[in-house]
Amino acid sequence: MKGRDAKPHIGIFGRRNNGKSSLINCLAGQEVAIVSHEPGTTTDPVKKSMEIPGVGPVVMIDTAGTDDTGELGKKRVGKTREMIRNIDLGILVLAGNIFNAEEEGIIQQLEKWEVPFIMVHNKSDLVSTGDELKAKIQATYSKEVFDFSALHPRNKEHLIGLIQTAIPETAYLSKSLVGDIIRQGELVLLITPIDDEAPEGRLILPQVQAIRDILDNDAIAIVAKEREIDALLKRLRPRPALVITDSQVFKKADASIPDDIPLTSFSTVLARYKGDFENYLKGTPHLSKLKNGDKILILESCTHHVSCDDIGRIKIPRWLSNFSGKQLEYQVVAGLNKVPGEITDYSMVIQCGGCMITRKQLINRLKPAVEAGIPVTNYGMAIAYMHGIYKRAVAPFVKLEPDSMTYL
Hints:
Elements: E1 9-14, H1 20-28, E2 46-52, E3 56-62, H2 70-83, E4 89-94, H3 101-112, E5 117-121, H4 131-141, E6 145-147, H5 156-166, E7 187-191, H6 205-216, E8 220-224, H7 229-235, E9 242-245, H8 250-256, E10 263-265, H9 266-273, H10 277-283, E11 295-299, H11 311-324, E12 329-333, E13 348-351, H12 359-371, E14 376-378, H13 379-386, H14 390-394
Parallel strand pairs: 1-3, 1-4, 4-5, 5-6, 7-8, 7-9, 9-10, 11-12, 11-13, 13-14
Antiparallel strand pairs: 2-3
Helix pairs in contact: 11-13
């Protein structure tokens, strides 16, 4: 399941025939998921885009039943559990007052990945939630069980209200990329090379996001290729209050942009906006401590056509091998695919900007490495460090001690 949609993700979990697909159809107001009385109709996680009032566009994920059986069923349950780390809110669907190890296992995973969740007892028109079950869940999880019927959704608005309350605002309220470091009317220069990796006829998403954010903050965005920068700065008045460059031409930008003009990269901006910025700051200097034989895990947030000059697969490994002078091994994982082996097999994790996934997906993707003490960084910050301009790249956002890379 690839994380290609940055809208909030809501996962629906529960046993076969508890009415998970019916619940999605009810919330959507249309038949977007296949419903059948035959257990196991939903076999793999299926994404459905819809609108939740008060939240906006979301992605609902219909999953296979947690009680699926057989060898194939175990694999389906495995995929269902893997999905938990990629969602912003979980809805555990109960029915018939059944609650035991199946449900407890899902809750354990939700809590492990710090995913908020609500519990819905579906088919309440047939069997309502018993007092014993209510008491057990309240005592164990400090949660209420919401009685509901997807067939007769008389209290649908109440359920939507529960979803609105439970989903974290950080999942759907966008903060500004650079709004806290620029002012109204200021110029922001964006350096955007057009090379083999640039998509035909358009800009990449981080560049578009930066332009929109600058305009939203009533500032002025100026976009130019790296070879035009020297001539542009000679005639540009007033001077830019901030320059954001593509990481691949950071060294050229550093040489061209005067030291008194703040300079950073699109990837560094995204790292602060969406990534695990504090751990990036702690982990990036570890690039100087790598040893022969160390394995480097490179995480891409999307799948794409690999060019001969691909940033994650070609350039970063080449730069890092030259920078460290060590014999290193590299493993690239695209989308939200499973990492080969154990996370402890790796000495360093380098994450892309994550423009195609949610913050929750990115943070949880890095969580095993962070908990295991594996240093993490991202493309832009790693590139800046390897080119000797790391301090300048993060200076618009943090203060670093004069003689170290230590985060204050």
